[in-house]
Batch of 3 targets.
Target 1
Amino acid sequence: MSTTPRMAAAKRDWGSDESGCTVLHIDMDAFYASCEVARHPELREKPLIIGTGPRSVVSAASYEARVYGINSAMAVSQARRLCPQGIFLPVDMHYYRTISAQIFTQVFSQITDQVEQVSVDECYMNVSGALLRWEKPSNIARWIREQVATRFHLTCSVGIASNKLIAKMASTNAKPDGVLLIPEAQQAQFVQLMPLRGIPGIGQASEKRLKSWGIEDVASLSRCSEEELQQATGSHISARNLFLASHGLDERAVIPHTPEKSIGAERTFLHDTSSLKTVCDLLRKCSDEVASSLRNRQLLARTLTVKLRFEDLHYITKSHTLRMPVHSAATIYPEAVRLLTSMLNMSEEQIKQGTLPKLIRLAGVSASGLSKTEETAVQPSLDDMLQEQDPQPDKAQQAQLAQAEKTLDSIRGRYGTGAVKLGL
């Protein structure tokens, strides 16, 4: 469910020149909510919100619900206040993923194998190789929308352009259930019509920073040099990306079968908590889930991240890149605890007392910097070496095991002394 602003002036006929427009961005309309309507037709044209429970957030909302100001990541309790007559349903990810897989297999992959899936309901498609059969990108967009509607009783919006940025912005402004073609010669004019938040990747913080430099919209952004943007953003990479985007340019290619970038687990507490033990208990469970997923997929991770959401729904993250890639909870969990205490600037006294300085609503752990186990050179951990020992060791091996376990205890004791004293 996108919250990117749309411009009524952008949803117009920009011309019919499709030459060079070989990138499509396909975005399902209100996907979770639409899937529920597809299997429960009686919900059609009713305000439908996906998300239940006083501690949950909205995962999706039908267009009928959005007129009440409901959007994704909003607390369900707030959504109920805004739309008390709304129909609230729980998230059914298994069902949504099943429908998504069928759409990608039965529809999108019938056009080309150059499909980059971004999420369960969104993808880019390079159709340059498919034009010999289809002649024009607009023919492909029309067929896709017809097939999705006929086979699955869902709608999608399609953006057609020469690059990924403009194609995505076009599909956003084509919603709901529309197609928007932006000819290559018109893409700069198209993007410069937008507010800053109209460019994907510009969030609230970036918008505030740019406006503090007198950059009010994409048109004024386009008048800045890369050097000026680097001063404004403090980043050469961000400056380069913003400069290109403000002129309707994007150097990224459509990459099919994108490798998994991260694996994570997070949970919302039933009640906000300031207990270090409670949060660490959850981080331990999340670490176990992440480690299990890494091993099942035969992956190693080099970077670990802890995420915290506070009572006001604001969230922060903190990451650390390890010297050696890992896939064991025995390594992930102590690092998660260390990140937790570091990101909250907890003193030794606070750690000993076991009280967090802020109420925590949600906590989670994720692993990134992934690589295949068989392709990664890694020194075995003490845990790995212990697991490889003979199940009935001789006296010499018993002594080695005892020493190894003592060393492990010493290493673990370096992380979060408060957690150790709390019996975690």
Target 2
Amino acid sequence: MTADWWPLDASRMARAVAAREVTATQLVQACLDRIAATDSRVNAFTDVVQVRALQRAAQIDAGLAEGSQPALPLLGVPFAVKNLFDIAGLRTLAGSRIERDSAPATADGLLVQRMEAAGAILVGALNMDEYAYGFTTENTHEGACHNPHDLARTAGGSSGGSGAAVAAGQVPLALGSDTNGSIRVPSSLCGVFGLKPTFGRLPRTGSFPFVTTLDHLGPFARSVRDLALAYDAMQGFEENSPFVDAGCAQRATETVVNELDLGIAGLRIGVLGGYFFDNALPPARAAVAAVAQALGAHDTVELPWVEAGRAAAFLLTNSESAALHLDNLRRRPQDFEPLSRDRFLAGALIPAAWVARAQRVRRRYAQAAAQVFEQYDLLLAPATPCAATPLGTERLDLNGRDLPLRPNMGVLTQPISCIGLPVCAVPVWGMDPQLPHLPIGVQVIAAPWREDLVLRAAAVLEAAGVCRAPVAHL
């Protein structure tokens, strides 16, 4: 009986619980059963909090029986989080071996608390690249996360477990982080919707940092409405907390779920060319073309300073993350995943003058992008240069250039998060005749604080059938 519920969207689940069509316990058990049946192949989860989840579900069911439980927007909906979010009673591993020696978290991260306040039920923590430094989730300590649509291929990273868990039907919602593309890359490769909000929109309190000046948190979902429900549940700055996220903007909540049906009439939409065309393979270009046609976008737009912006993001990522881990690099270098250790060591050698210059470039780039958004409301670009590659792939042939794969899976996302723009990654299918079973994502980008616009466009694309997020046939 419960197996019939796990493929449904979160919004449908919540309505069913509120209407007493299904209990929260049945929903949670369905997802737990799905995880047990599939995760030996997907390897999305690092922890499953079964007892906690069933206890919370029982509380919701008891409240419904008594008539004291309000019909919350995510009532009874199971969700999971990247294992850099604090979960009370568990160690926050951030994909590492070193953090296994840390004390368990004493409280849930703030966004976990807000999701549960909206009625959702946490079921576990998800696989990721060590310390969020990577784009493939081939984790030495936890094992590689597998793409549910092709188990021999990468799920992307660093939030690979989040994208894979949603694509596999293990949970309808997941949370991840995005510093240089770590929500948008897994969304693209796993074929789900992902939202990277504006930098500073969602507080990061209770999550393990990677690069404080670049880190974003956000949701994954199989429908745009679910994405909007989760986003709305997590909005709002912190008040009266001794651990407040200094990077969170003191900005009022601006909910979006009731604006999804407003459409795109009157919006000015451009397609990013130049850098974004040159760094995409034909299937990625075709995905953008399909989205552009559906949205009536005809103009090709150049984004000034984009290559310099990506270079600045590289330097800031390297230097700031290295500073965070410098003590462990000195004391426990052997306990790092080799690839992340080498990146951190390189970052520790970057001169301070380079970092200062990178910040100046970043500022100039943001100013140039703001001028573009005076002419356009939305911009479109590929999310990844290609579809999911086989696990273990080291090189990428990008239009005749032989490049290292891992850093270049973020070649199209890194310049956008460098200046904190809001993005919805939308999945498109059938763009590669040689890989018809694999999706590839498109970034729908707006000016700061206009998450409503990217989600409205995503809703139009979903309603038209151009973008969709089916559960993988495992």
Target 3
Amino acid sequence: MQGEPMTSLISAIVWMVLLIGIFYFLLYRPQQQQRKKHEEFLKNLKKGDKVITTGGIIGEVKQIDEKTIILKVCETCSIKVLKPSVATYYTEEEKSQS
């Protein structure tokens, strides 16, 4: 009878550690890797790249500052957006879909 409470306590701790491990590998770690990949993408941006913002605006990088990017969206129009709002490169595949 004296061993039962200790066994259930150890069992509860093992389950808790297992759940934390599952949470880490299924949720936190992939999100962390995705964030690092996006930061690397932003570091590698250069003038002339065609990009899409998270709001769906397509433009060409005209100027890059520390926190902002100026996008040329048409011949006479440029907009300033925050760097993290640039989602991805604009590719030829996306042109054919629109």
